[in-house]
């Protein structure tokens, strides 16, 4: 079991994200994971720095903690050749601490370059497959070309490749994406505690690590925590079909006007009681995930990290499927 800390790039500026990563390393987290967005989900979150610059700075400021994107879309806003180069460079600078999380993306971030974002989920998955093939091709060395249905590559070479290539974790919300993670990825990434996702991944031959984000909001009292999550993270209750389609923060604001505090409490572990956080994490462990990302939507990141260090680090690492520690 490895425990990660989610760097909420929609909620904090770049220097603060680097500071939190250093704090997470000191607190004993195994890795940090950063969202790779162009826009925040809601305007009042107020931030969305370039994730790759932040990761490079974190690599320079830390020595042990792993780094991951959670996740990058390598098909529209970025060409996969750019991501192949960026990931290889970051792997070198971090001395092998980087995991490349990839997914099919959200309209919120991808439409900004004016190339459009496919309406059909099947098309997005086809593009992700081609992107994975291009990245793997470039990482095999030499000059490479590729002619796909959606993506092309012409005489490209990544000159600086690490001896050990980064692990690729592919985001999945259904059977086809989980199978793609098994075929062309090294691991699985998910945001829901659905055991069928891990089942699909294993059925397709996947044997790598399984990453999942556990929603939580720490504060000294439950109401303060839930209100903070309601204010900045209510978009998380819309579900993937909505999250992948809406084009701008104002649309997410409009789509979540009916979300209430009680809805937040059903989704997020809130407040000061460690048992609530362990119960939430247990659901993901029972579903088959072994890399848990603590996604704190509370108002005090330092308070949460201190709470994690005192109350959660040891107990989380003892969790096993079925809830009976070995």
TrEMBL record:
Enzyme Commission designation? 1.-.-.-
Spell out the SUPFAM superfamilies in the cross-references: Bacterial luciferase-like
The record's keywords, sorted A to Z, are: Oxidoreductase
What Pfam families does this protein's entry cite?
Bac_luciferase (PF00296)
Q: Which GO terms describe its molecular function?
A: oxidoreductase activity, acting on paired donors, with incorporation or reduction of molecular oxygen
**Source taxon at top rank:** Bacteria
InterPro entries, alphabetized: F420-G6PD/mer (IPR050564), F420_G6P_DH-rel (IPR019945), Luciferase-like_dom (IPR011251), Luciferase-like_sf (IPR036661)
Q: Give start and end of each Luciferase-like domain.
A: 8-202
Question: What is the official name of this protein in its record?
Answer: TIGR03557 family F420-dependent LLM class oxidoreductase
Q: Which organism is it from?
A: Streptomyces nitrosporeus
């Amino acid at each position: 079991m490895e425990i990660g800390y989610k760097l909420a790039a929609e909620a904090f500026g770049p220097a603060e994200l680097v500071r939190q990563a250093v704090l997470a390393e000191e607190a004993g987290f195994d890795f940090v994971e950063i969202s790779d967005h162009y826009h925040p989900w809601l305007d009042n979150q107020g931030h969305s720095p370039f994730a790759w610059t932040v990761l490079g700075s974190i690599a320079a400021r830390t020595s042990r903690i792993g780094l991951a994107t959670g996740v990058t879309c390598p098909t529209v806003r970025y060409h996969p050749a750019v991501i192949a180069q960026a990931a290889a460079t970051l792997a070198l600078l971090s001395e092998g601490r980087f995991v490349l999380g990839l997914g099919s993306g959200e309209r919120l971030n991808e439409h900004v370059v004016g190339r459009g974002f496919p309406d059909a989920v099947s098309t997005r998955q086809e593009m992700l497959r081609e992107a994975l093939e291009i990245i793997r091709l470039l990482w095999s060395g030499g000059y490479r070309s590729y002619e796909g249905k959606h993506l092309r590559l012409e005489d490209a070479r990544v000159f600086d490749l690490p001896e050990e290539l980064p692990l690729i974790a592919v985001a999945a919300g259904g059977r086809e994406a989980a199978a793609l993670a098994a075929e062309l990825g090294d691991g699985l990434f998910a945001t829901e505690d659905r055991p069928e996702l891990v089942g699909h991944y294993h059925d397709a031959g996947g044997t790598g690590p399984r990453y999942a984000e556990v929603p939580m909001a720490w504060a000294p009292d439950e109401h303060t925590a839930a209100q903070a999550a309601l204010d900045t993270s209510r978009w998380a209750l819309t579900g993937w079909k909505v999250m992948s389609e809406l084009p701008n923060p104002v649309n997410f604001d409009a789509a979540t006007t009916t979300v209430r505090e009680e809805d937040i409490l059903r989704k997020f572990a809130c407040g000061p009681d460690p048992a609530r956080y362990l119960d939430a994490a247990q659901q993901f462990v029972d579903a088959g995930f072994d890399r848990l990302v603590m996604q704190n939507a509370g108002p005090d990141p330092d308070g949460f990290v201190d709470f994690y260090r005192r109350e959660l680090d040891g107990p989380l690492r003892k969790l096993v499927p079925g809830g009976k520690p070995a």
